[in-house]
Amino acid sequence: MAHIIRQTVDDNLGKEAGLAVIGRAFLVSGILATLGGIAFAIWMGEFVWIFGGLACLVIGVAFHVAFGALSEIIILLKRLCGLPCSGFISGTGSGEIFLCSGCGTMVYASSEKCLKCGETLDADEE
Q1: Where are the alpha helices (DSSP H) in the chain?
Q2: Fewest CB atoms within 10 Å of the CB: 9, 25, 85, 114?
């Protein structure tokens, strides 16, 4: 006779992946509607089709951004809760910034003087 086995499964591909796909689908549909509007405008000789296609493009881009943002919010919330997730979060790259040692304001590497406190800046010290 068989028995029920309880097993914990980590789900790292949740709804956030689907939201990003839906956002891309809206973007593609907006582009296709714009191209269709241009084709209809040429065929019918009425410019109103171009404006309709551009309106669809604007709506498609807006939905693409909104669904992409929702996807990233879910990924961030999962990471904050310690749940496993796979996904890309925009703006998480790394790099170097340069700060004035006097006031902490961001400056360019080639700056000679801080724009906030007026201190003269020396070459980069390691």
Answers
A1: 15-44, 48-80
A2: 9
